[in-house]
Design a protein that fits this description.
Elements: H1 3-9, H2 17-44, H3 48-53, H4 55-85, H5 92-107, H6 118-134, H7 151-155, H8 169-190, H9 193-202
Length: about 200
């Protein structure tokens, strides 16, 4: 038994919408925050401990993670659609509509971040809703392909001055691909996709 399998055995299965919503929230935050801090640590090198203790950096990182959270939610939400929607058959669009509502309800769990502001937070929600609506216009993507449309926007949010980022975009893109593949594996193993899909569609009736 692999280490991942042992870890998943200790985590509850995802068999209802509340559990799915919790998964989306947790992993969207994990995806963007881990990338921000790992990239910043790598860029700062030996000075990372000093950098992470500076109030100015902490404020910038906090702003980055909140601005990036809707992007993470868009990516993990699309990932979930691929896992659940593949069993929906002709009901894919109705399943997607219900899932999109769940994703937006997860966004709405969080009050307006002070470092983002109401106007930008409202726009982020609108952009998230638009992204979710666009998922039904194409077949489900592989996990590795999901970051393609959002990675540049995510990279631009890194709390490192753009003059110091160099040609690091491919590194961040690879991080997103690998992490989303890992999240996909966990979601697939923990989720009763058929049951959750039925519960989602029941919300549309």
């Amino acid at each position: 038994m692999s280490l991942l399998d042992k870890v998943l055995m200790r985590r509850p299965p995802i068999g209802d919408i509340d559990a799915l919503a919790d998964f989306l929230d947790e992993h969207a935050a994990f995806l963007v925050q881990k990338g921000i801090y790992e990239y910043s640590r790598a860029r700062a090198g030996h000075y990372s401990k000093v950098l992470f203790q500076e109030a100015e950096f902490q404020q910038a990182a906090d702003q980055s993670r909140w601005r990036a959270y809707p992007l993470g939610l868009a990516m993990v939400g699309e990932l979930a659609e691929g896992v659940i929607g593949k069993l929906a058959g002709d009901h894919r669009l109705s399943t997607l509509g219900a899932l999109a509502a769940v994703v937006l309800s997860v966004f709405d769990r969080h009050p307006v971040p002070a470092r983002v502001g109401a106007t930008d937070w409202s726009k982020a929600r609108a952009d998230l809703a638009q992204h979710l609506a666009s998922i039904g216009l194409h077949p489900p993507k592989r996990a590795i392909d999901i970051p393609q449309s959002l990675a540049k926007e995510y990279f631009a949010l890194m709390p490192i001055h753009k003059s110091l980022r160099g040609s690091d975009f491919p590194t961040v893109m690879n991080y997103l691909k690998v992490t989303l593949c890992n999240i996909h594996d966990e979601l697939t193993k923990r989720t009763d996709a058929r049951k959750v899909g039925e519960l989602l569609r029941a919300r549309t009736n």
